[in-house]
Amino acid sequence: MVDTLLRPWNLDDAPVVLAAAGEDMMARQFTTPVGSLAEAQDWIALLAARRDEDTAYSFAVLHEGVPVGNVAVSSVERRHLTGWISYWVREEARGKGLATKACQAVSEFAFDELGLFRLELAHRLDNPASCRVALGAGFLVEGVERARLLHDGVRYDTETHARLATD
After folding, report:
1. 91-140 per-position pLDDT tens digit
2. Where exactly are the structural domains of the chain?
3. Which CATH number does 2-120 carry?
4. Angle 14-21/37-52 helices, nearest 10 degrees?
5. CA torsion 10→165→144→130, rounded to 10°?
6. Helix/strand/coil percent split, the chain, to 5
7. Residue closest to 139 by CA, chosen among 71, 80, 50, 68
8. What is the pTM for the complete model shown?
9. CA 131 vs CA 38, 144, 158: distances in Å
């Protein structure tokens, strides 16, 4: 499934990244500003550098061969064999189950290829779609972190989920 659903980002994908960053509330999904093609290419280059450093592995989520989202295992920590899962899908590709399938696929990659044991993720409590993705990908609820995130001056609670290699 990874071969048809996920692949590493490449510089030719910069227009897709730029369009995604321009969607409502998507800019916060990027660790660096993405407001131009050059910044989108810089973001893709950053992902490649993190892969080379063995700290994060990001993949384009494909729908009919076209990138429509991102899924990643980051904060790869070798001492405790843990990682952090994140995902987003462009507006036109939502509701097709792609984020759930991508989250499952990147989890299997993290367990099988990276040798990780525990994967974590969190979502805002006001994002039930992200919760459905987490649950559908086999991540169990572990608890609520109060006022965990700050966006535009507003604090948001998050729900933390985890999946173990033995689940």
Report:
1. 999 999 999 999 999 999 999 999 999 999 999 999 999 999 999 999 99
2. 2-120
3. 3.40.630.30
4. 110
5. 40
6. 35, 35, 30
7. 71
8. 0.93
9. 33, 12, 10
